[in-house]
Amino acid sequence: MPITFLLNYFFGRVTFTVNKSDAEKTLNILHKYGISAEKIKNDEGEYFSFTVRRSKQNNVVSLLDKSGIKVYSIKGKGLPFLLKKYNKRYGLLVGIIIFCSMLWTSKLFVWNVTISGNENIPDSVVEEQLLEVGFGVGSFIPKVNFYKLCNEFLISTEDFSFVSVNMEGTTAKVELREREVKQESVEYEASNLVAKYSGKIESMTVYSGASVIEKNAVVKEGDLLVSGFLEKKYGFEIVRSTGSVYAYVTRRFEVEIPYTKEVKVYTGNNKKDISVSFFGKTFKFFSDSKDNIKEYDTFNDRERLVLFDLIKLPLIMTEKTYKEYRYDSVLLNEGEAKAEAEKEMTRILLEELSDSEVLERSTKEEIGENSYKLICEVYCITDIALEKEILIK
Description:
The protein has helices spanning about 1-10, 25-30, 55-65, 80-85, 90-105, 125-130, 145-155, 335-350; strands at about 15-20, 40, 45-55, 70-75, 110-115, 160-170, 170-180, 190-195, 200-210, 210, 220, 225, 230, 235-240, 240-260, 260-280, 280-285, 295-305, 310-330, 355-365, 370-385, 385-390. It has about 400 residues and is α+β, with helices and mostly antiparallel strands.
């Protein structure tokens, strides 16, 4: 694949060497964080090596360091390392500087995009969303209708409620305001409050409606707690009941894990599309045929050429990888099923009891022929008020 070799040389590659005993852990970390590893092999002796893009070098070093994986060597190859090696050859350096200066004098294209205001959405996601509406590094500035761009961007995404794009020289400054996610709540014209769970009333606060129970009363699931019917001197009034009713309740949770389950497994049959964008023009250099793969996940990796770790050029390589997968049946032993059940139970309890005061908790297990079941009973104080609409004709 000559074009791939050329692009690898142009952007640079870095080879890491670690201990063979850390090989599986290392590959899992790289896969988890979406970092593509190439030339994976067992070296002589007790070493294992893999190659990543130069732009991922610092990220890989940080991840391996945090995971306690010792790196024995880091070797770089390609044009960026060659330029760094010969950066004291002033003739070559002057020539490159002249070339870069000529490019730098072009004020008609977007050279850089800065993004602010996105607290929860990563910059990379915003850049992809901008590219979908035709704007990014290399865009021809005189042809950009910024008003139309902002409208199309907001229409194409539900993540943001406001966007502005302003040019400062060749830098596009994108200012965003994330859309506030409001909890959906049903507003009834009239309603009662009933018991969501059976229990003993600990305390209650009623803002509207008429309470029909008292403290220490024992109620069953579905019993009326606060009525929306208010008696008046002449007749009655129907209102919406609001408030909170806390009670001592016992809640039961079950998690069942079958010993046989289906898991997604990547086959290693990967296909790639490689394209390069230069000043807003995209050129496809290579594309694998995907005729022989049916189910796959798509991973996008965009890399921008940077000279001397300082000068960002409007040259971006996009590598789209299609990873084929299949579903295999995996047989769990009792210990593995128990671990999964405990993990799932922890998730459920954190979600269901976030607003409850836990007083006691007990668990028991049921080991069957085909599955492992974990049962947890929690004695707690929680709000049992559930609003039920009163239909008015």
